[in-house]
Task: structure prediction
Amino acid sequence: MRELVDLPVRELSGRCSGELNLRYNPEGVVDHLTCQLKVAGLSVRAASGPPVTAAEAGIDLAASIDSYAGKLKVQSLRVRVPGLQADADGVVYLDVFDRNWQAIENAHVKGTVQPAELAALLPGDVTLPWGLTVEGPVAVEASVEHAGPTMRVAWAFDARGATLRRGGAVIKPDGRPLAASVKANLDDRTWRCDVPEDGQLKVTVGANEFRGWGFLGSLEERLGRLSGAKSPLTLARIRQEAVGVNWTGSWTVADLPSLLELTGLPPLAGDWVIRGAISGRASIKPGLDEQPLGEVTVHLPEETSLSLGGQVQKAAGKAASLMVRTQIEDNGAGLRGGDVELTAGAGRLGLRGLSVRQEGEGLQRVGGSFDAQRVEDLLACLVHPLPGKARIQGDLRGQAWVVFGPGRRLQDVLRGAEVHVDASEALLDLPGVLFKKARDNASATMDLSREAAPEGMRYHLPSAPGRKARWRRR
Result:
């Protein structure tokens, strides 16, 4: 039989039986058929690898044929072979067998795949990308339905019961949740892809969940650009990919180790500790001038605590959040119109009109205006915010520009700064240096445009004439 039907296997054995029933209409044309094929004691060996066996395998089909319309209606199709158990139904036009996917009127498939067993049956050396192997069952479901030029697609898989390995190392053990699902509308004329909010792209990894919905433009053009892209990821390229996109994503990360393990990223450093969930939302959509506008929000609820490198901390009991909104300049040279808002307890820091521009080779100039409320709550997020018994309480506002360059040490990274601070609404208590009550007008201007390195609350300034920092009472 292997030679009769030219199966791409080296060995095939088992006992096969079956039944075929055909029904003819008055014109003598087959309009209905049923087919049953069963194999007992199946053993299959592909061109390479060990044999795959099954006590029983088979295919059951019940279908109607409209020969005038060239349409096939599958009432039921059941497939049971090593590595695959699936049930399907649908309506297709006969030219679907010429690989014309537009000939699918509707189709639905649901079943379970054993990837390792199924791969052993396929011709050639079938491997997954990135050195992945999957052992165990993966539940899959897919459906397609045409409504005029729109193809509605739904797809889902659940690999909770499977073990994933990369290069032999387990990256997702049996029992850990790993699933994804999506419902989308695809225009088969333009390849315009829409994921409605009630359909959503949903991905679950352990206790982490990611969702997304919106409009991605032409899927064909986007995939073509991504597959052919060899240039580095720059702001100009990000802006090009973002034009015409209106997409929103949300996430909840409550099990960071399982996420890092799956993606192959290194674990957090020992002095980075996160307890609790972190949620967020990101979007990219056309702004008022139809140029791409990006926004990212991260939220840490009251019950979440963290410590990052012994420098930044958030204790349980106070919520914190970060929002960043910006646009990429038309020429892709920088960011403009950015807003940043950081909250910690009752404290709030807002940056307005933030821009990022290249200034010389390898240098970035970042700046804008700022206002801070309840500075003491913001400083509480730093492990060592102020030296000794120094205190800053109340509100601050001003403008700042900072020039950053490459390097690992702070004095290498910080190439210059210009800062103006209005501290009229703040209490400043710097023992031995300054004491100022709230509502006493005061401001400070600092020009660190040549070189600066922080040392407590003092700054070593360049000795060039005119480079001074001083407090002025008004």
Q: What stands out?
A: Residues 1-104 form one domain. The radius of gyration is 32 Å. Confidence is low (pLDDT under 50) at residues 450-474. Residues 55 and 289 are 65 Å apart (CA to CA).
